[in-house]
Amino acid sequence: MSVDPKMGRATAGLADQPDALRGACTFANLTLPEPLPAEPMGLVMEWINLAGTSKTQPNPNAMTLATVDGQGRPSARIVLCRKIDAARGVFVFYTNYDSRKGLEAEGAGGGAGGGHVALVFHWDHLDRQIRIEGRVTRSPEAESDAYFATRPALSRVAAWASDQSRPLASRAQLLEQNRAAEARFGVVRRGEQDSEVEVPPGLVVPRPGNWGGFRVWAEHVELWLGHSTRLHDRARWSRALTASEVDGAAGYAGGGWTCTRLQP
Ligand SMILES: Cc1cc2nc3c(=O)[nH]c(=O)nc-3n(C[C@H](O)[C@H](O)[C@H](O)COP(=O)(O)O)c2cc1C
User: Fold this and answer.
1) Dihedral sign from CA coordinates of 181, 187, 188, 192
2) How far is the CA of 78 from the centre of ligand 1 (A)?
3) Which of 156, 173, 198 is the last residue of a domain?
4) Number of domains in the chain
5) Has residue 6 been placed in a domain?
6) What's the mean pLDDT when you consider all of the chain?
7) Is the pLDDT confidence value at 125 over 50?
């Protein structure tokens, strides 16, 4: 930590920090296969599985989701990847369709990026990054229902309590909205702790109509492997997507992949 004399406040000294932390990181100096595989999803699944089994971060399925608004201005946030359909090249996350990301992803109001999003997975301890650019569609209702039913009871109730991305007057307002949703579903709350809550046995909470899955259909996939000499290994696969009904819902059919290595 150092003090910036112009700003008069402590700065994190981020320029120096990475080297100090590098000790925790051992570059395995791996490279991508040569020749590259004809399609990327096999490697994607290998890397995701490795990130999970290495157990070095609580959410190895966390990914950055980037969207753009109607003027083409980007925003990004973390969401959890809940399913990958390797055969179709599809990544699934769940959210509120009326949230900022939901509206931007779908281009509500004619947004510039309507239907296009980007995803990034980063596993620092593995020196790996996966970038995906693609088209987005809503998951079929039955798939969202099935996933919602697997969520813990209080999470299902809370999905009714939050108008995600809308302003709140106070934290108390959110708790009040949550109490109202709990009362609606017969949950008895005796205090703020979850241990002070009584959930009726067999509680059924329907999925809110504005909450569900998005399928991201990969159009471009880039794999990046870090190298201690900065001669990182990068390769990008691309394919064409054609609108097509899939599982009774809007989706895409993917053409064949082409691939190329990229300079790091
Ligand atoms: C580790 C982590 C996981 C998250 N997972 C999700 C998720 O799966 N779905 C979601 O809607 N928000 C998730 N969030 C919250 C989002 O990052 C974001 O704050 C929220 O969705 C509102 O974003 P928006 O206003 O841009 O729509 C997660 C945040 C973190 C830090």
Assistant:
1) negative
2) 5
3) 198
4) 2
5) no
6) 91
7) yes
Identify the residue whose tokens are 């809110």: 208
**60, two tokens:** 């190895």
Instruction: Indicate if 74 and 21 belong to the same structural domain.
Output: yes
Whole-model pTM: value is 0.92
Confidence class for position 17, pLDDT limits 50, 70, 90: low
Q: From the CA of 78, give the closest atom in ligand 1.
A: 17
- Percent helix / strand / coil, the chain, rounded to 5: 25, 35, 40
Domain range enclosing 178? 148-198
Are 239 and 227 within one domain?
Answer: yes
Question: Ligand 1 center to residue 104 CA distance, Å?
Answer: 14
Which alpha helices (DSSP H) does the chain contain, by range?
Answer: 17-21, 41-53, 100-106, 141-149, 153-161, 171-184
- How many angstroms is it from 196 CA to the middle of ligand 1? 26
Atom of ligand 1 nearest to the CA of 165: 25
My answer on whether 43 and 118 are in the same domain is yes
Give the residue-averaged pLDDT of 108-125: 84
**Which range in 6-10, 246-250, 258-262 is most confidently predicted, on average pLDDT?**
258-262
Instruction: Assess whether 60 and 170 both reside in one domain.
Output: no
Please check whether residues 164 and 247 belong to one and the same domain.
Answer: no
94 and 138: one domain?
yes
